[in-house]
Specification:
Helices cover 27% and strands 25% of the residues. With 138 residues, it is of the alpha+beta class. Bound molecules: tetrahydrodeoxyuridine.
């Protein structure tokens, strides 16, 4: 499918505005493009007890899957400290790579953006080589 990268990155920046980050002040937004064209967004949501913190990517994934959507083409991720602009791209953490692998597999395109025009992209299979997924349990 045709992927409008700028639009997906813009959606991730919009979602980032809702990041709840009183502890790290590092704000992340994600926009997950389903194969049916729908976009599910998420932000990171921190917690005083720390470990219940959920990353933006998994927030977006939970929204999609809990609405019956399981097939995805791409995800855009943006992150930076509150009030700052990105110097490095934010790449999904290890837990998020695994969570996305469950539904996106090797081909999910991961777009890690500093702006709508400045981004790096890799298929998930490059970020999580030899990923363990549903096929391993067949
Ligand atoms: N975080 C994400 O939301 N996604 C990532 O891919 C990297 C890390 C969040 C978790 C935590 O709220 C903050 O960024 C600092 O680690």
């Amino acid at each position: 499918m045709q992927i409008d990268r700028a639009a997906l990155i813009r959606a991730a920046f919009e979602a980032r505005r809702f990041a709840y980050t009183p502890y790290s002040h590092f704000q992340v937004g994600a926009a997950l493009l389903a194969e049916d064209g729908r976009v599910f967004t998420g932000c990171n949501i921190e917690n005083a007890s720390f470990s219940p913190t959920i990353c933006a990517e998994r927030a977006a994934l939970a929204k999609a899957v809990s609405e019956g959507v399981r097939r995805f083409a791409a995800i855009a991720v943006v992150g930076s400290r509150e009030g700052e602009t990105n110097t490095l791209v934010t790449s999904p953490c290890g837990v998020c790579r695994q969570a996305l692998y469950e539904f996106g597999g090797d081909n999910l395109l991961v777009i890690m953006a500093k702006s709508e025009t400045d981004y790096e992209e890799l298929p998930l299979g490059r970020l999580l080589p030899l990923g363990f997924g549903p096929k391993n349990l067949e």
